[in-house]
Structures are given as structure tokens and as C-alpha cells.
Amino acid sequence: MNLGRIADSQAALGRSTALNANAHVEAKNTGSDAEKLVAEVKETFSNLLEYAMLLLMAIHFHSNQVPAIGELVCSTLGMKIPLRPNNTTRMKQIFTQEIFTEAVVTAHAVKVPVTVNLNADIPGYLPVHCIHQLLKSRAFSKHKVPIKSWIYKQVCNSTTPLHPVLPALIEVYVNSIILPNAKGPVEHTHKPLSEREILKVFENSVPGANFDHKKRNYIFEFEMEQTDVGEEELSGVPSITSQLLLLYYLLLYEDVRLNNMANILINGRKVKAYTMDFMSELPIKYLLQQAQKNQRNFGGLFSPLLRLLVTHFPHLCLVDDWIAEETIALESTSRSIITEFNVIEAFEELEVSSIKAIRLMRRMLKKTPKDLWPLAGTFIRYFKNILKDDTPRLVTELYKQVWVRLNTVLPRRLWTMSINALLPEDQLIKNFSLVQESPCIDALQVLRCDERIFRCPDALSIVLRILQASLAASKSQLSRHIQDKPLIEKTGQIQSEAEREELKMALVYSQETVAVQILLEACLETESDKNLPGRLWALREVRGIICSYIHQVFISEITLAKLVMFQGFHRDLLSVVVKGIPSMHVCLHYIPELLNMPEMEKQIFAIDLASHLSIQYSLPKSLSIAKLCINTLSTLLGSKYFTSSDFISKLNLRALRLGLN
């Protein structure tokens, strides 16, 4: 019925084309025929404004997209009709000026119901195409038509496979919020989604059911407005498609906002910002993992989502985590139910027998991460129980594997729980506990943990993973702060963005080098290592883990290797460091500078370092450095300040080592 009416209307438009072509012959009848045509089209289309096809045709006429109009007409009528631009001039005038003005189109577009269960399998032209085109042309902003509610409803009514227009719809919506229309007033921008609206989509899902409800008092200027979305519309469990689209909206919104913050402040505009406190509540990593493993359904969304995540949340994109997550199954292979009582019972009896703990963790490894997350708090509470010297190695290995699974759901909350569980029990930090934002502010708080961690290889691997993520989060937080507070007025001591960047990198390097120094100090052999059975083997493995971590730090930023060498460390660790860190060969380039330092301790450290490097790396560079060190030794031995036989014997040993090379 509708297609017949549309076909009749198309015939009327065809008559208009013929009329336009013969206008020079029947000039007297043109005006009357055009008026009749307008009346006919208005009567035919008066009750069809709710259909997406007609709206889309009107939008294409307004944007002068003749090829798109031809495709739309041909697909609707089921026949191929040639449509030339010179034959559509009169039709465009009728559509845009007399029948469907831009104000009429925008007013009716927001009244079109959203497509229920929108996905890529639904063919044809849909309301989402119309809204996307109108948003792209800034028609809604021009006529002050609010569109937030419609977009929110459509996002909540989307399923897999992802419709290809939805990511583009999110992009133009974000741009219409933050970037003002160049041809219109600045204040004509759309409103962003509120935290309450976003959380409605997440809190009815897993792991959204485990949100921290104590942290819901998000204060911001737009929150005072009442949401225009009814509660009944979100009564069901939202799909993962809706959650991924809202996550993409949040990341893209913050990316566009930060990149345009200088212009926003110059123009005196107030733009909403989503806080890191709010973002930390969302299962970002879990959603990204689902998108990665279902790229067939989310192919058009995974790549831009990953790009934004690497830029703004690098601590959630660690290489070690990605490798470990490849082996985690999406489906559970066990139907057994695990309760908190089972966890408590198994770990309370760990000192007596480890059988229950081993069986429990093997059962947990058969569960999916989202099924395990409700047990995370109880499981992490017993972290210290595995640090005892008599704990079987199988227990610590299984504990690490379960922890890695939990790390795929809400990693930042897991890191906070883990560090709080590992805090030493002393009076200084008795009432101290970390929150999720603490590692972003001071990443070194991660190393304020029980000393037994540094003799438990599996537990140390967990702590180093948290440390690596915390340092990346701290660096990202500093970069975000610089973007969020651009230097508009140069009135203080800092006069340029380059100076701010230098100060940021100085702070980042300080945190990195202090962490390396703490870890190197943990590699020193103690009396308990000599006396307790098995501790030397644990120390050897711990040294390997720490050296591997430091190697990653050095190859990611080679400047840190130079800083650590200039700071110096205990010379008993030189043999361990040179043999355990493959990237130590770059330090050959820094030895001449160390030898030129005025402090004698630095010169001695440089000679000792050169002796180990020369033996480890038989390179031409090593030979030239060894010759330089021997010449420096000759100068030191001839100095009147060094007459001690013990000191001379130590220098001779280093000289002998260099000579043997």
C-alpha cells in the first residue's frame, strides 16, 4: 500500500521532470501545473512523514546528493530509473522550499520511533540513516532540536551484529556536542549523556552488577537535569552492543574534548567532562576483550575502540595481559557452583593441608572471568597466605593463574584490592588503604607491600604487573592533566607547553628510576637467604623476574638506563644486572661520561661496570672502553690521595679483569 502511494508520488515527480524539460513550449501552463503538483505531492505525502525513506530523500535533497536520491528511488520502486542533476532542479526546489523544509524534516525526524533490536542484518533505509545525515549536516543544531534522547534509545535498542551506521552516528553526535557549528552560534550544541544514563546500561549486566555503589555521587553541572528516558525502556538486560557503543562514546568524547580544550577555554565555553573516578567503574577491559574475540560482530568498532584505549588507558593494554588473555576461554567448562564459603574454607586450612585450595583453584580456572568476579574480594583477601615459605609452589602458580583471569574484568579495582591485601601489618600504615585513583597519583605505593613478596616469584610477578600498569596510568594521568589544563595565560614561571612537557617527563623518569632502584635493592642477598632452605633458589628466580622487568623498562625508554647508571647502585649486583638484563650493552656508551664525573665513587662504579660489560660483550666498543678505563686507573693509582693497599688491590683486580678481556 505504502509503496504504491510512493510510486504514484514518484510518477508525479516524473511529470514534474517532463514539465521542466518542456517549459519553453508551455510557459503559460507551467505555473498552474507546478502548483497542482505541489498540492498533489503534499496530499500524497502528508501522512507519510514518519517513514524513513521519505525523510532520507528530503535530507538528500537538502544536501544536494543526487546520486543518493537515484539509488533510493531505484531501490524503493524496484526498477532502474536514470536521474540526471539537471532534471531534478525543480524537484529539489519543491522538496526543499515548499514541501519538506529543513525545519519540518528535523522536527519530524526525532518523532520517528527507533528501530527495535537494530543490527546489520536489517536491510533498507532506516531512521538511523536519517538521523546520521541530519546530525552530519548540523541541521538539528541549526533548528535547536534536541536529539540526545533519540540517540540514547537507539543505542540501547541495538544488538549484534553491529549496524555499520552506529559508530558513525556516535562520532557525529560527539562532534556536534563539543565542536560548535562554524556557520551558527556557539551555544547551539547538543547535550551529552549523563553518568546516570550510562550507568543504567551497565549496572544490569555482568560485571556491572558488582559496581561499587558507594561511589555514585558524581557531581557535575549537567547532572541536575532530569533524564528524559523512561525507566521502563531499560528494564531488560542491555546487550553488549549497547555497552560497547557507550564505551566508544565515552572514549571518543574525552578524546575530542581534550584535543580541543584550548579552543573551548578561549571561547569561554563550559563543556562536560567525565571524571576518571567514573570511568574506573566501567568494565572497559572486559568489553574490549569481548569485542576482540567477536570481531565478526564488532569489526567496525574494535579498531577505533582499541586506538582510543591505547591513547587514554595504556595501563589496560599491556602486552603481557594480552598474551595471557589469549588462553582464557569465553565459555565455562564446569557447572559446579563455587561460593565464598568454599574459598574461605580452602584458604583457612592452607597451613594444615593445601589439597582443598588446589582443588578449589583448579575448579575456578574452569570458570569464565565474569563468573569468578563475585568471589574476587574474598579470594584476594587471602593473598598473604601464599607468601609463607612452606607454601607449595603449585598453590602459588594456581593463585597467579586465577588472578590473571580476574584481571580481565575490572583490573583497576583488582589492583587496589591486591595492594591493600599485601600491605605490611605495622603501626605506620595500620589505617592506610589505597583507592583506585592512588596508583595514578603515586605509582610507587604499589611497592609498599610485604617484604615476603620479593622472595615469592609468582606473587612478585603479580606485583610487577600492577607496578607496570600503575606507572603507565600515572604517565597517562599527567598527560591528561596537561591537555585538560592548557596554558592559555603565560603569567607564571612556566611560559610554554614544552616546559610543561619537560617537567612531566622529569616526574615520570623519577618514578621509573626509583622503582628500578627499589627492585634492584630487593635482589641483594640477605642473611635469611643463606640460612633458610630454598631461599637461594627463590632469590635466583626473583632476580630473573626483576631483570626481565628492568629490561622491558630500558628498551621502552633507553634514557632510563642512563639515569639508573648515573644514580648508581650496589656494586655486588653488577654481575647479576649485566648477565640478567640483555639491554645493558647500551651502558657502554655512558661510561666515558661517568669517568668524567667529579665524584670518585662514580668513577669507580664506572670502571667496575666496564669490567663486567667487557667480559659479557666482546665488542669493539668494549675494547676501546676497556683501554679508556685502564688509562683512568693508571691516573688514579698515581694520585697521592690513593695510597691504601686495600684500595689499590681492588683497583688492580678491576684492571686485571679488563686486561683479561
From TrEMBL:
Q: Where in the cell is it found?
A: Nucleus
Q: Which Pfam families match?
A: INTS2
Q: Which InterPro entries match?
A: Int2_metazoa (IPR026236), INTS2 (IPR029321)
Q: Which GO cellular component terms, listed alphabetically, does the Swiss-Prot or TrEMBL entry include? A: integrator complex
Lineage, top-rank taxon, reads: Eukaryota
Name the predominant localization: nucleus
Keywords, ordered alphabetically:
Nucleus
Keyword Lipoprotein on entry: no
Query: Which Gene Ontology BP annotations are present?
Result: snRNA 3'-end processing
Keyword Nucleus appears in the UniProt entry: yes
The UniProt similarity line reads: Belongs to the Integrator subunit 2 family.
Protein name, as recorded = Integrator complex subunit 2
Q: Which organism is it from?
A: Phlebotomus papatasi (Sandfly)
